[in-house]
Amino acid sequence: MVCSLTGSHLAQGVAVNLTASRRFLTWLWQQPEFQQSAHYSAGRVTQILKTLALEYNSRLG
Hints:
Elements (H helix, E strand, L loop, with lengths): L1 H5 L11 H12 L2 H4 L6 H19 L1
């Protein structure tokens, strides 16, 4: 899941620091799609998380 969230490949390895994680989680909790995700299946929540992570990463770069 970390590779999906960071946009990297498993072979490359990824270091995610605590500050970056907190910023992402703070942003994530503010997203309406995530706030309503408790009503969905695990598969749908995974799709929502991946989509939101891609959106978040695109805003950083």
